[in-house]
Amino acid sequence: MISLVVAFYISLALGAIIGSMRGWGKEVMVSFSVVLALGFIAIFEDLFPYTKDLFQDGSLNQFWFRTGVLLFMVFFGYQSPKLSRFARYNEKRDRVQDFILGLLFGALNAYLIFGTLWYYMDEAGYPFSPAISSPDTLPSYVDTANRLLNSFPPAILGGYWVYVAVVVSFIFVLVVLI
Q: Is the confidence at residue 145, as pLDDT, over 90?
């Protein structure tokens, strides 16, 4: 059995490899799609009064709704078209820069996606048990897992911070990418 901590770090490495191949222009759009998904989830769960009856905190329905929204937005973030502004390479330096920034943004995306999914699984009480179980079963990973859970995007972007992140992402898209 592999622990969630090790699986998370493996996903960071795979995300970095994928990001280095895709380039930073495309990876930025995936990052913003995750932020947009977190904003949509926050709006849907906090601001619509009828959803209080629909989702109890930590319920399986809430987990599947959050996971579905996140995966839907990530799918369309990865399907983004090639940005023509970043498609031209005049120098070898541009290719190296795109590779390194793609590597960093790819790792960031893996952190955002898999960290958010892990956070939601933890809130739902690990619904895939025993296939995916709580890190409490492996005492050597409990401290690391708790530190990671407290540093994942839903924990950091709680309250109104998620709305600030959505606005900053939108401003970045307007200023830099368009």
A: no
Question: For the chain, what is the mean pLDDT?
Answer: 85
The amino acid at 124: A
As a whole number of angstroms, the distance between CA 141 and CA 130 comes to 17
Amino acid letter, 96 = V
Q: Where are the alpha helices (DSSP H) in 79-160?
A: 92-123, 142-150, 153-156
Whether omega before 130 lies within 30 degrees of 0, making that bond cis, reads yes
Burial 23-45 (b: 16+ CB within 10 A, else e): bbbbbbbbbbbbbbbbbbbbeeb
pTM of the model: 0.86
Q: What is the DSSP letter of 132?
A: S
Distances in Å between the Cα of 49 and the Cα atoms of 45, 55, 109, 154 are 8, 11, 31, 21
Residues in the chain, how many?
A: 178
Dist CA 9 CA 11 (whole Å): 5
- Per the CB < 8 A criterion, the answer to whether 108 and 29 are in contact is no
> Which one is predicted more confidently, 88 or 174?
174
Whole-angstrom CA distances from 134 to 12, 89, 150 are 20, 46, 15
